[in-house]
């Protein structure tokens, strides 16, 4: 947390409520936390200005939209100094939804979402493998997502 920013118990409760349901109105959140909607509005604005809260997201059930394949790609780089260049190129692939610079066996670990195995093959073969600086990859196909949650914010 930023040292000059006063984050108190109410701010943490607001953040936790937003993590749980970003669609809550200020009035609904105020009722849950026993403060006015105006207080919630002011606090959220403060958290946004500090960069703690960024945007609003809804969880979308991708399977219901026809995206049936989730895979994880471990990416080995030719040299770790190529990370920035490779990461920039990987960000251009819309099927990659999450990417982390990691320690361990892989330099980059990415999550990819596709409609089917054919699309996954196309992304791996026609797009990912052509990026300069990638030495090789390992692909793991998810059979089931058993847990997906945010961290619980405590005071």
From TrEMBL:
<dbReference type="Pfam" id="PF01037">
    <property type="entry name" value="AsnC_trans_reg"/>
</dbReference>
<dbReference type="InterPro" id="IPR000485">
    <property type="entry name" value="AsnC-type_HTH_dom"/>
</dbReference>
<dbReference type="InterPro" id="IPR011991">
    <property type="entry name" value="ArsR-like_HTH"/>
</dbReference>
<dbReference type="GO" id="GO:0006355">
    <property type="term" value="P:regulation of DNA-templated transcription"/>
</dbReference>
<keyword id="KW-0805">Transcription regulation</keyword>
<dbReference type="InterPro" id="IPR036388">
    <property type="entry name" value="WH-like_DNA-bd_sf"/>
</dbReference>
<feature type="domain" description="HTH asnC-type">
    <location>
        <begin position="7"/>
        <end position="68"/>
    </location>
</feature>
<dbReference type="GO" id="GO:0043565">
    <property type="term" value="F:sequence-specific DNA binding"/>
</dbReference>
<dbReference type="InterPro" id="IPR019888">
    <property type="entry name" value="Tscrpt_reg_AsnC-like"/>
</dbReference>
<dbReference type="InterPro" id="IPR019887">
    <property type="entry name" value="Tscrpt_reg_AsnC/Lrp_C"/>
</dbReference>
<protein>
    <submittedName>
        <fullName>Lrp/AsnC family transcriptional regulator, regulator for asnA, asnC and gidA</fullName>
    </submittedName>
</protein>
<keyword id="KW-0238">DNA-binding</keyword>
<dbReference type="GO" id="GO:0005829">
    <property type="term" value="C:cytosol"/>
</dbReference>
<dbReference type="InterPro" id="IPR011008">
    <property type="entry name" value="Dimeric_a/b-barrel"/>
</dbReference>
<dbReference type="Pfam" id="PF13412">
    <property type="entry name" value="HTH_24"/>
</dbReference>
<dbReference type="InterPro" id="IPR036390">
    <property type="entry name" value="WH_DNA-bd_sf"/>
</dbReference>
<keyword id="KW-0804">Transcription</keyword>
<dbReference type="GO" id="GO:0043200">
    <property type="term" value="P:response to amino acid"/>
</dbReference>
């Amino acid at each position: 947390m930023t040292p000059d920013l006063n984050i108190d118990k109410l701010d943490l409760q607001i953040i936790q409520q937003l993590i749980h349901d970003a669609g809550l109105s200020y009035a609904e959140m105020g009722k849950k936390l026993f403060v006015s909607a105006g207080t919630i509005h002011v606090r959220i604005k403060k958290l946004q200005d500090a960069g703690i809260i960024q945007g609003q997201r809804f969880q979308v059930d991708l399977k219901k939209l026809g995206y049936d394949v989730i895979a994880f790609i471990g990416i080995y780089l030719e040299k770790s100094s190529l990370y920035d260049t490779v990461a920039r190129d990987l960000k251009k692939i819309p099927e990659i939804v999450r990417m982390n610079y990691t320690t361990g066996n892989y330099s980059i670990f990415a999550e990819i979402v596709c409609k089917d195995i054919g699309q996954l093959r196309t992304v791996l073969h026609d797009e990912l493998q052509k990026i300069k600086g990638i030495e090789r990859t390992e692909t793991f196909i998810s059979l089931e997502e058993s847990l997906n949650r945010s961290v619980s914010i405590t005071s």
